[in-house]
Amino acid sequence: MGSMMPKALDGQIVMEKTPRYFVTVETPARVRAMSRDVKLIVVVRDPVTRAISDYTQIASKTPGISSFESLAFKNRSSGQVNSLWSPIYIGLYAQHLERWLAYFPLSQIHFVHGERLVSDPAFELGRVQDFLGLERIITDKHFYFNKTKGFPCLKKAEGSAEPHCLGKTKGRTHVRVEPEVINNLRDFYHPHNLRFYQMTGMDFRWK
């Protein structure tokens, strides 16, 4: 990993953004071997919404995939959740964070509130700039809300006069999941979420 990172000049910050790193078991040790001073930024959102979003993405590329309900449960009638199914497993944030805390202090890990990143991007990016020790240059004047996609857009893309919005794979309508299934998943994640709030010192207020 370290050999693949580009060289940085003084005053530059190099970033690597592979979402899977947070949940891959061997990654914390590899990152620490590369740099013990690295700053880590993790964007998290309600794990139930995240799981449905993940499935929607997978289903768009996988014709004939089984239903969300059949994949999310080991036993639907008993409500036993299949916690090893990737869309469910990724949302066990406390479990993943515990591995990272064996190698890095919490002070080097910054959590971005995913829902608030959409509703108030300037606030969340202000917190990120503070965490990185950067001057707060990005403010609310840099964003406008795209009602069609339901996400904020940058008023100008870097090096362009045109605005920059998320790509067409983002903001697509989620598959419909039965309310009973959503409630079962909320119950499943509840203790994991509480533990995550306690570990991070942040209340994300997921349902």
TrEMBL record:
It holds the Pfam family Sulfotransfer_1. InterPro entries: NST/OST (IPR037359), P-loop_NTPase (IPR027417), Sulfotransferase_dom (IPR000863). GO terms for molecular function: [heparan sulfate]-glucosamine 3-sulfotransferase activity. Its EC number is 2.8.2.-. It comes from the Eukaryota. Residues 30-190 form the Sulfotransferase domain. Keywords: Disulfide bond, Glycoprotein, Transferase. 3'-phosphoadenylyl sulfate binds at R45, S53, K170, G171, R172, T173, H174. Disulfide bonds join C153-C165. The keyword Glycoprotein applies. SUPFAM superfamilies: P-loop containing nucleoside triphosphate hydrolases. It is an enzyme of class 2 (transferase). Belongs to the sulfotransferase 1 family. This is Sulfotransferase.
